[in-house]
């Protein structure tokens, strides 16, 4: 069993030292190798898994926020709420209200793009099954790290387009995409079990052209869960 598989199975019970010991490395060496591979450190990865599990519990169960915080390994409700808000974009209680809101009215395409030092042309390549029943919504956003953690610095939600020109975003060089089928329910939008995602290969430069090739996330290739509550961006 790899350290990634171990972490995904029970993140609330593990520390970085546990993962390092499991694969026979020192915590320092393990952290360096882990960060080089995934673009984020193992501590942040464990937190991402805990927050993802909390998102699911909030929408699947009726337990109190404090009970869910304890269930995913947080000792303090205030610490859980701060971390949840920072990585998802809304507080835990608001996620439940957001699910009710988008069940009645799914978000329409919108833009939060900011002017930047040049732009890139982005071609969108989707698997056939995603658009089989209508044009999907596609979120394209700039993130400071190559993982969908926290709110993007800039981005747009589009539908029915094959390419788009995006201004670069200072301090957020990583371009990530996420596709939502046209008939996706609130659960699939907020905590997709098998998200269809894409990431541009490396930081991009002005005037470049890149293809975002979307595909179902595979645990061995894209193990970091999608944490951003994308519909919450509509009101920003």
Please describe what this structure looks like.
The protein is an alpha+beta fold and 236 residues long. The protein is built from 8 helices and 9 strands. The chain has helices at residues 3-9, 16-23, 27-38, 42-60, 65-71, 77-88, 92-104, 186-190; strands at 110-111, 119-125, 137-143, 154-159, 163-167, 174-180, 196-199, 209-213, 215-216. Helix 1 (3-9) crosses helix 2. The longest helix is centred in the N-terminal third of the chain and has 19 residues, at 42-60. The chain starts with a helix and ends in a 20-residue tail after the last strand. The mean pLDDT is 80.
Note the topology.
Elements: H1 3-9, H2 16-23, H3 27-38, H4 42-60, H5 65-71, H6 77-88, H7 92-104, E1 110-111, E2 119-125, E3 137-143, E4 154-159, E5 163-167, E6 174-180, H8 186-190, E7 196-199, E8 209-213, E9 215-216
Parallel strand pairs: 2-8
Antiparallel strand pairs: 1-4, 2-5, 3-4, 3-6, 6-7, 7-9
């Amino acid at each position: 069993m790899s350290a990634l598989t171990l972490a995904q199975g029970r993140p609330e019970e593990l520390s970085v030292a546990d993962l390092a010991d499991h694969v026979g490395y020192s915590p320092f060496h393990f952290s360096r190798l882990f960060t080089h591979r995934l673009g984020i450190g193992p501590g942040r990865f464990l937190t991402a898994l805990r927050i993802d599990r909390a998102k699911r519990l909030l929408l699947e169960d009726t337990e109190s926020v404090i009970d869910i915080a304890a269930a995913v390994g947080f000792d303090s409700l205030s610490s859980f709420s701060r971390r949840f808000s920072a990585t998802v974009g809304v507080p835990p209680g608001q996620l439940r209200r957001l699910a009710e809101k988008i069940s009645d009215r799914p978000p329409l395409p919108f833009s939060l793009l900011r002017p930047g030092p040049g732009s890139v042309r982005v071609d969108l390549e989707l698997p056939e099954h995603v658009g089989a029943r209508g044009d999907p919504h596609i979120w394209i956003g700039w993130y400071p790290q190559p993982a969908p953690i926290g709110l993007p610095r800039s981005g747009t939600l589009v539908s029915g387009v094959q390419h788009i020109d995006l201004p670069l975003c200072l301090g957020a060089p990583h371009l990530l995409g996420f596709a939502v089928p046209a008939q996706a329910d609130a659960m699939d939008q907020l905590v997709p079990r098998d998200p269809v995602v894409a990431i541009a290969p490396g930081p991009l430069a002005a005037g470049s052209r890149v293809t975002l090739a979307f595909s179902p996330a595979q645990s061995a290739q894209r193990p970091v869960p999608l944490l951003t509550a994308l519909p919450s961006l509509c009101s920003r």
